[in-house]
Amino acid sequence: MEFQNTLEFAKQLDVQDTLQQFRSLFYIPIMNGKEVIYLNGNSLGLQPKATQEYVLDELEDWASFASGGHAHARKPWMTYNELFPKQLSKLVGAHENEVVAMNSLTVNLHLLMVSFYRPTKERYKIICEAKAFSSDQYAMESQVRHYGFSPDDTIIEVAPRDGEHTIRIEDIIATIQKHGDSIALVLFSGVNYFSGQFFDIATITYTAHSVGAFAGFDLAHAVGNVPLALHDWDVDFACWCSYKYLNSGPGGVGGAFIHERHATVSSFNRFAGWWGNDKATRFQLQKGFKAIPSADGWQLSNAPILSMAAHKASLDIFDKAGIENLHQKRKLLTAYLDYLLNKIIDENDEEVFEIITPINENERGCQLSLLMLKDGKRIYDAITNQGVMSDWREPNVIRVAPVPLYNTFEDVFRFGSILKTSIMS
User: Fold this and answer.
1) Is the pTM of this model over 0.85?
2) CATH classification of 55-317 is 3.40.640.10, yes or no?
């Protein structure tokens, strides 16, 4: 499509948008009497208007039934967690027995590393991306130390080449092959939180398996954002949060994927809790854990109903919109943002920022990261004061993410105009 840098063109794209009605299903924050231009869904998704009703239903059932809500709530709490596999499996490209909604992202990462990071004297290294999110770094460091290894010698980071901002897949492959049979685990993000790079999960997984290592992924910035096919890509495990692109509220319940070749093996190594135990004997409360032969077998505790109700409200919207439709709009919306940003770059006499997210639409999701080369914090503060909600990442990056469920092409155009005037002021 040949884009145009005009408000009329942006509005015409909105008229043609088959998903335009979904914006009305969300609360848009108000600043100075106007709706903000919200481009921060990569940090926290907007609240669906239905969330209050979903949560209120559970509060009412709690008030009405007390403990009886486990059996008699409108969505009985005893089986509430079973509402999610069908919907989650569509988002991550999995079988229903491979996914579970539980805990939070970092808790799930630790639980899954218990299962998939089992170092020996010979095979102990972890290969990961440089500048992984801090929680992932801390999880890896603490797991490595738990087994008596030094993080400096054990965690091998793959970094961008000098002068580049993203990591070449050939460098990831070469690093895995170089360390070969000393690798226990390859652990990457699906989408890097800082640069917005969407990694080639299938190739990374294949290469990890070729040297005998497990492959796992943190999908915090990928789930609900980019196309995923975890089962077909043969990924061993993955975990994610639900409060970014899945719009399920701050600190919302996380999720996990365990490939069925592992998930269906009840004897597979794990930390255990009663909700992961065989449902037929769960309430006998006896010694001797017997895992459910699915991803459910990694559960520890019964479902956090109020958090899960918010999660369900958002996932029902995803079902109505259709993930493939969202991917199509996401590509066009982000491409239009990319076009407008490059117009600003071309029209400026000096370099003020550069886009460090890949230009290839198959190597990125919604997010574009702007490396500010001059006056970054001043410009960020200026666009914020004019009603743009984006994200500042130290030392000098502004992240913007137009989300297809609730952002418009007009949002993107107006952001570009505000950014341009803020740079010139």
Assistant:
1) yes
2) yes
